[in-house]
Amino acid sequence: MSTPAASDLPAPSSTTPPEGSTPSAPLGSDSVFAELVGQQSVVEQLESAVSSAAPTHAWLFTGPPGSGRSNAARAFAAALNCPEQGCGDCQSCRLVAAGSHPAVSLVSTENVSYRIEDVRQLITTAQDRPQGYRWRVIVVEDADRMTERATNVLLKAIEEPPPRTVWVLCAPSPADVLVTIRSRCRHVSLRIPPADAVAELLIRRDGLTPERARFAARVSQNHIGVARRLATDAEARTRREETVSLPLKVRSASQAIVAASRLVAMAQTDAAAESDARLTEEQASLRRSLGLEPEEKVPPKLRAQFKRLEDEAGRRAKRAVTDSLDRTLIDLTAVYRDVLSLKLTTGAELINEHLRGQLAELAEALSPEQTLACLDALNTSRVRITQNVPPALAMEALMMQLIPRRPRG
Question: Where is the composition biased (Low complexity) (predicted)?
Answer without folding.
Answer: 10-26
